[in-house]
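Fold Annotation — chain and its backbone
Encoding — discrete vocabulary of local shapes
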Amino acid sequence: MQSLPDWYLAKVSYFQQLGFFQEIGADADSIARQILVQSQEHYYGPILNLDQDELFEQILLSYDTQRVWFIEDYMVLGQEPAFRNDFYTEVFRRLINLTNGLFQPQNLTIAQCGYCDGRDKRLMVDFEWEGQMHQLIFCIDLEVLVVNFLAEINELLASTGHCFRVWKEGYGNCLVLFIPTEIARALEIQRGWEFTLLAYYWLDKAQYIHKQLESERAQEYYRKAFETIPNDPHVGSEFAWFLSDFQQYAEAKIVYEQTIERLATKGNLNNTEQWWLTHLNGQLQKLDT
């Protein structure tokens, strides 16, 4: 029988203790061997040939198909099928499976949008949760569909002790996990993983509600987005512009100043960040005149 590297067994054992791989085997050695066999036909090749980095851990967790949805090259996946209803049906089917049926979407609708930075489709889905109906509304692209709208579902999941998490890394892959909240925290703390921040969902929803002239609700979501990623100049700019539009000039000025300060103190700004710094300063000057 092939001898397995200690580092490989240690990683399998670590994730097994967190509750992963329950459907594969009862002990770390048998789990590790089954995954090694399955990996012979994987796109990335045998798992032991991968470097001991984030890609390895992503591929390793992808074999837990009950708790993890592994999406290879999500950026490419989001382009071609963006207007196919069956693509979204498949996405929701996978989320239903991950939650063991807790999440049950209904009334999937694709409608014209017409204002979101050139994107002209908007997806709406109704779902029932604990006896109440909810509606999710977002622009169509994979980032929003698979990642960002999960923020709202996580609020509803709070009482269940479970949550969705999305982990992306530089190879263009991402994992969608449905796991106990305490396990998510352990992964964030012990492994140093930075799960995808979901603020752009709040921003997108704020813009939609703003379009419906519901300023109070829109402000709530703009604020959520800004508080989630206060270092993002786009989010800060949109929130400050909204406040200015409703003549809340004092708070708009504070948001502009905070966003400018955070960006300016970052150092080594790229061309895009330099543009944002100039733009934000220009908007702030308009408030002062």
